[in-house]
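Recap slide: histidine kinase, sequence and predicted structure.
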Amino acid sequence: MIRKVRNPFVVSEGRFGRLLVTFMALGFLALVAAGIGAGWATGQNESHTRSVNHTYEVELAVSNARRLIEQGEASRRGYLLTGNPEYRDAYHRWSAATPAALGYLQGLTRDNPAQVATLGQLRGDIQALLTQRARTIALIDAGRADTAVTLFRTEASVRRLTAIRDAFERMAVTERRLLAERDAAQQRSVRIFYGILALAAVLLALVALASLLTVLGYTRDLARSRDSLREFNEHLEETVHERTADLSRANEEIQRFAYIVSHDLRSPLVNVMGFTAELAAATAPLTELVDRAEAEAPHIVSEEARLAVREDLPESIGFIRTSTQKMDRLINAILKLSREGRRVIAPETIDPGAIADTVAGSIRHLLDERGISFSVHRPIPPVVTDRVALEQILSNLIENATKYLQPGRPGVITVAGEARRDRVILSVADNGRGIDPRDHQRIFDLFRRSGQQDQPGEGIGLAHVRALAYRLGGTIDVESEPGRGSTFRLNLPKTYVSQDSAA
């Protein structure tokens, strides 16, 4: 007996398969979750990287604009002090580049309201500064250097330039603060990414460990089961031989009992049939006597006597004779089954298709008379079995198919066969009236029939077929629906092995 193991990782085959599927699904979900998380973290990291790069661009743009303002102021003062035209040309270059730098800075900071406000104030101050510078340069160009120097000393450019520098510094401080925040967010996204990878790795490791434990437990349980099964099989063959011998003896006893009972029943039945014949013979003189009495002395013949002699007595004798004939057929059928059970099986290599052709040839007149199309679908695998038994089985099935036709539809009977491993499946199919599914099993019982009883028979044929199939080591079943025909399938071993040989 196989001992049940309580280890949760030792499971049955069905549960083992379900657990493996579950673990695979969990592992797949962990990978999907890790992929989604990694994708999200990567997206966040890319977003933070773009933000950091943007901050650096803004800082650079602020520095560039501030540099242009400072260089422009230095060039103006150099021109004011020396009158050297190179300072004036340099001033014009810095002044010309300043609007573009401010425009670029404005484009970078349009998403930051604080920077936009600071830049708006800065533009006004820078424009005023540039205007004042332009007046100074114009006075020097006109040869009025003293006036230009006086104007420079009295102008508020120093305070304005200080305010511009402070505004640029505020913008730079704001960007440095944003840079610190965005650097921190980028670090968080990187940590989240690695955390997701670590969690996925832990989940996959747990799933792999659980799968490994399950497989190892199942393998151990399988080994124990195999050992127990080997031990069981060592005793099973002996047990099967013993049971087979017991069944064979019981079957022989049943066959002998059926033979004895059937044989003993025939004695009283013969007596009944004999006395029935004498009664039938005595009926004629009585009838003549009544006829003569009616002719010579009608008053002595009563109506009851006349009916008894002319109707009741012949009718009763007919009933007795019909019943005894039916009983005689049943007893003969039982004797036939008993003799078949005692007959020795003689296996030989047989072509079932040839047997079917022989059966069809023996009832060719019946097939032609009823307009039935008969065919054998080849190839049919050969079998090693008893020829007489197979002939009786196919003959019974084919003859039944010729009886139970569907009215108004030409009959079609087909015999086919196929091999399945070490078995051969022979089928006899028809397009007749069919069999109710509720009767698929009972039609193989002795003296049981299905459907309309409009054909001769005692319900013995299919019982005989099943008994022969069992003797040949096979089975018989039917697939049928009313009005759609029937298919009988005979399942036989490719090579018959007697019970005695198996024992």
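The beta strands are 347-350, 373-376, 383-386, 412-420, 423-430, 475-480, 486-493.
The radius of gyration is 57 Å.
(End of recap.)
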